[in-house]
Structure formats: structure tokens, C-alpha cells
Amino acid sequence: MAMRDEPPFRGDQVGSLxxxxxxxxxxxxxxxxxLSADALTDAEDAAIEAAIGRQRDVGLRAVTxxxxxxxxxxxxxxxxxxxxxxxxxxHGIAFQGGLETKHQGLRVTGQLGFSxxxxxxxxxxxRDHAGGAVPKMTIPSPTVLHYRGGRAAVSERAYPDMADFFxxxxxxxxxxxxxxxxxxxxxxxxxxxxxxxxxxPEQRAMLAARGDDPDALPGVYASxxxxxxxxxxxGMRVTMHLCRGNFRSSWIASGGYEPxxxxxxxxxxxxxxxxxxxxxxxxxxxxxRHLPPGKQVVLGLVTTKSGELESPDYLLRRIEEASRHxxxxxxxxxxxxxxxxxxxxxxxxxxxxxxxxxxVVEVAERAWGRA
Length: 371
Description:
The protein is α/β, with parallel strands linked by helices.
């Protein structure tokens, strides 16, 4: 078996990284009115440059900005779309263990569209400092704007018919994809918790109670994503990351991929899938039998939720197990999620974070050979 020359790479990463202490202090000072916006940008630039260097040092062939300019992995992008506004909620997003995110929500108040976005500039910074590595951009999947609030978060005045909402949302994302492409992005990732949530009985019951059909949503979401990707250049590799929630080392959902696997792998027009597989909450590898030729799965076997380092032999055995259900040439390795989906970060140290990424590269070289 051979290493891959295009994304996703045999040893890869999801995207977010822990914010260094200096950057956390700068953000706190900015929020307190003690630091200018330009000074915060300078602190972000310095932290991202250093992080890109560390990513290259551990052997990663694709680098990100660690999402260090964001507060949350999804809201920061979505609220930049035309027709979307952020607002303060009574409660945050609830996670296991009684944890709760910031009291923030999004709602659609007008016609959706894309007329530019600061994150295009964020990508350009990574592009200009990648130092020979492949710059990777991560954005939330368009499905996230619907899943969080459903019909209640979409103005009936703006969208009396939800079919028009999904059409405009897909078109807005198509504009975003084109903008990233024009900036030179050839490795784009859609972060999508929702296909995994649709495998959880409790989440499905919640959707049904609010008036959504959990059996129909996978098809709706597949069509939405495909509309968003219409016209993307042939040289742009698009991946999708699936997990069951990631906030301060906690989670939301459980359940294997079987309920959505056939549609996910065959009907969603992305090139590869980063799949959470670090605990039995994600089920077994059997759903990988639905993976068609030409697509890849990146096995998220290394957890970002704790600093305990996995055994290389254990990871190799897990890769071998997955190979019983999918072509081993179609497989890669990564952490199960990012290390800091929100600015608070998971309960892991920076030293442990970098050692985990080193481990991914080392095990990938043992499993598939050196680049």
C-alpha cells in the first residue's frame, strides 16, 4: 500500500487546535475593551504562524489555522451569510455531563446569500504561510443552519416554503465554495455533526417532536450539500467530517453509522469522510461496506477528548479491522475530531495535542508506508 499524493492524506487531521495561552489572554483583553481589533489580529496571526510550523514539524502534509480566529466552529461562519443573524438565547447547546455552550443562537431573518466573508481572508493567510504544505479550510456543513433550530429558526415571512430556504442555502454555499476556490483552496472540509446525530434515537425523537421527519432529512441534506458543491473545480478535494459533538471533551449523540451509511457514502457528492471512531458510541466498521470505489474514509481512531496516548499497535489493529469492510487503499487515519471546536478547548494539554498528531503520522507511515 502507498501513501496518498492528494487529500485526504494517510495521516491527516480534522482542523481545530487548542488556543495558546497568549491568544486566550489577547481575546479576553479584546472582550474587556483593553485591546484593539488590529492588535488581536496580530496575536492571531502570530499564533497561527506558529501552529502551522508545528503542524509541518510533526509531519502533517495538510495544515490549517486551527480555527484560532473563531469562537465556535460553526456560528462564526454561518452568521457571516446574508440573511443570518446571531442572538442571545436562554440556554446554550447541552452536552453530556451537564455542560452547556455559550448562550448563542442563529436565526434566518431574510433571504440567504453570499456576498463575501472574512474567512476567505483567513484561508488566504494559511495559504501564504503554508510553507509547502497543503492549506486546508474547514467550514460548517450547510445542514447545520437547519438542524440547530429547524423551522422555528427560519422566518416564515422570508421563507414561507422551506424548499426555497434549502435552495437559497445551497446557492449561498455555492458562492462560498467558489470564493474559496478563487482564493486557491484545493482542500475544503464540511464539518457535519448532523448525519451522525441522525443515528441517535434521542436526536431522532427530538426532530420528530419539533415537526421534522428524521427519515427524510438525510435525503434533504444530501441534496442540499450537492447543490452547494455544484460547479466546484475538478481540482478541489472536498471532505466531510462527522462526529457526535465536541465541547470541553464532552459529546451529545451516540449510535453507529448504519442508518445513514448507504446514502451518506453514495449520494453525498464529497470525495472523502472523516469519521469519528474513537469509542464504541460510533458503532462498528460494518457500515464501511457501503463505501463506493473512488472515495476515501479517514478513520478517527485517535481521541482528542483526553491526553492518554493510544498504543500504535492498537491503532494498527483497528485499521486492520476496518480493512475487512473497506478497501485498505481507501482508508486513512486522523484524530476523531478537532482539539478545540470552541475556543474553550478540550481537556488536553498542548503537549498532548502535538504528540497525538505525531502519533497519527507515525502510525500512518507504519500502515501505508513513508511518503
